[in-house]
Automatic annotation (TrEMBL):
UniProt entry keywords in alphabetical sequence: Cell membrane, Membrane, Transmembrane, Transmembrane helix
Compartment list: Cell membrane; Membrane
Membrane-spanning segments: 204-224
A Pfam family that the UniProt record links to this protein: SURF1
Family classification: Belongs to the SURF1 family.
PANTHER family: SURFEIT LOCUS PROTEIN, SURFEIT LOCUS PROTEIN 1
Cellular component terms per the entry's GO annotation: plasma membrane
Superkingdom to which the source organism belongs: Bacteria
Bilayer topology term: Multi-pass membrane protein
Organism: Roseateles saccharophilus
InterPro entries noted in UniProt: Surf1/Shy1, Surf1/Surf4
Protein name: SURF1-like protein
């Protein structure tokens, strides 16, 4: 084999090894996320937590049934959120927990945006009496990419819990409840929350692309370096 042939072989082997390794890495990432999803589903299947048991970030994805009073004047409307292909807001209201000094942020549901005046907020029924809130625990309210620190009014792009605790004077637990059922009378909010997407299909897709590229490199080497020269000689 000539020097050029050895260089081509080395480049082909290096390219095939690299693309194969990247494909395996994507499969490993998918396996890790699949294990995480199984763990999250196991947490969600455990008995619901009440006020007394609440308080650890290790309780993410657990179901909760909490009692408390809405802090309605501190409601925040997260803008540019869609549900059922409609533009609107996610409503986040602190819930002051019964029997405790802390409050917890509750992502209550989705409300439509006014098609004419985007800053006009729709009416929101918020009971003043103690309510029971059912939901699941999340690390924080829904977040979107945002440049800068954002506004401090009732309509915001995102809500940082630590900053909001200082702003509101509330003692907030480091958790958020994604509400799954009305608390008392129907408040008109939608709660068609999508299932958490860990991106498994994305990793499988990337793995397929890397393995396909690996097969292409091997196939091109075999054709141009082994099969085609023999066909020309025959």
């Amino acid at each position: 084999m000539t020097r050029r042939g050895w260089l081509v072989l080395a480049a082909a082997l290096l390219g095939a090894a690299l693309t194969a390794r990247l494909g395996i890495w994507q499969l490993d990432r998918a396996a890790q996320k699949n294990a995480l999803q199984v763990a999250d589903e196991a947490e969600a299947a455990r008995p619901a937590l009440g006020n007394a048991e609440l308080g650890s970030d290790r309780q993410l994805h657990r179901r909760v049934v909490l009692r408390g009073n809405w802090v309605a004047e501190r409601s925040v409307w997260l803008d540019n959120r869609s549900m059922d292909a409609r533009a609107g807001f996610f409503v986040v209201t602190p819930l002051r927990l019964a029997g405790r000094s802390e409050a917890i942020l509750v992502q209550r549901g989705w409300a439509p945006r006014d098609p004419v005046e985007r800053t006009r907020l729709p009416p929101l029924a918020t009971p003043t009496e103690e309510v029971e809130v059912q939901g699941r625990l999340a690390a924080s309210p829904s977040r979107l990419f945002e440049l800068g620190t954002g506004s401090a009014g009732p309509i915001r792009q995102n809500l940082d819990a630590a900053a909001f605790a200082v702003e509101s004077g509330l003692v907030l637990l480091p958790l958020t409840v994604v509400q799954t059922a009305p608390a008392g009378a129907d408040d008109g909010l939608l709660r068609h929350w999508p299932a958490p997407d860990l991106g498994l299909q994305k990793h499988y897709g990337y793995a397929f692309q890397w393995f396909a590229l690996c097969a292409l490199i091997v196939g091109l080497y075999v054709w141009f370096q082994l099969i085609r020269p023999r066909l020309h000689k025959s």
